[in-house]
Amino acid sequence: MRLAKLGIVIPAAGQGKRMGAGYNKQFLTLMGEPMLAHTVRLFEQSSYVSEIVVVGAEADVPIIVELVHHHKFDKVKICKGGVQRQDSVRAGVQALSSAIQRIVVHDGARPLLTLEDFHRFLDETEKFKAAIMAIPVKDTIKQVHETGKVIATLTRERLRAVQTPQIFDRAILAEAHYQAVSAGYYGTDDASLLEWMGYPVQVIEGSQENIKVTTPEDLWLAERILAMREARSSTRGVGCTMEYETRSTR
After folding, report:
1. Which residues of this protein are annotated with the site description Transition state stabilizer (predicted)?
2. Residue 177: which of 130, 212, 211 has the closest Cα?
C-alpha cells in the first residue's frame, strides 16, 4: 500500500496582489505563524511523504530558507520558480530526486488541509494515475458574455470547485509539462494539462475548510477555522482528562 515514493511540490512564488499586503502572501501570519509554515508542516508530518520542494520567487528564497531552518523541516528543499505558476511547478518537479514516482502538487496558500483528509486522499487515489480534490458548487453558476449578459445557466450538479492536493504519476505529469512547454500552452492547474493531452483525471471529494487564502477575507476565515479546530481539540482533551480522572478514583 502506497509503496511508490511520494514527493510534494508546493508552488509559493505568487505575490498575491489581491491580498494587497505588498509582499508574498505566503508569509502573512496565520495564528502566529507564516501561512507557508502551516502548509509545509502537514506534509512534513506525513509518514508517506519522502521529499518536499517549495518553489519560491528568487527574492523570496532567502526568507523561505530561514523559515525552513526555523521550523526544522528536514524533508524540504527549495528552488526558484518561474514567471507563471505552471513554470514553478515544472521547476519543482525537476527538483525532486529521481526516486520519486508519485507527485502531489499543493498550493502554498492552502494551509488548512488536514492530515486526515490528505491521507484519505492518498487512499482513494491509489489506483488512479491522475486525481484531484474538488467540492460541489453551492451557488448557481451562469456563463456570462463579456458585455455582462447571461449566455447560459450551467448544470450545478455536474460542476466542481477544484482544490489541491492534486496527485499524478511522475512520468505522466512530466510529459504533460514537456508537451505544454513545446506547444506554448498554459493551463489553469496541472490537471488541465493532462486534460489537454487527453488523459483521464479522477475527482475525489474535498473539504469545505480547505480554502485558498487569496483575499483579506480569506485570511480572516482561515483564522476562524483554525481557532475552531483548536477549540474542538481542547474540548476533546478536557473530556478525556475528566474521564481518566473519574476512572482513576473508582
Report:
1. 18, 25
2. 130
Q: What is the pLDDT of residue 116?
A: 97
Strand partners, 120: none
Residues 6+ apart with CB under 8 A from 244: none
CA–chain centroid gap for 247, Å, is 42
Within the chain, which residues score under 50 in pLDDT? 1, 240-250
Q: How far apart are CA 185 and CA 182, in angstroms?
A: 8
Distance in angstroms (rounded) separating the CA atoms of residues 34 and 14:
15
Q: Please tell me the predicted confidence (pLDDT) of residue 243.
A: 43
Close Cβ partners of 103 (under 8 Å, ≥ 6 residues apart): 6, 7, 8, 9, 93, 96, 167, 168, 169, 170, 173
DSSP per residue over 45-99, as a string?
H-TTEEEEEEEE-GGGHHHHHHHHHHTT-SSEEEEE--SSHHHHHHHHHHHS-TT
Q: Domain extents for the chain?
A: 6-134+160-248
What pLDDT digit, counting tens, does each position of 168-188 carry? 999 999 999 999 999 999 999
Express each pLDDT in 111-127 by its tens digit: 999 999 999 999 999 99
Contact predicate 49/43, CB 8 Å: yes
Helix 35-45 to helix 61-70 angle (10° resolution) is 50
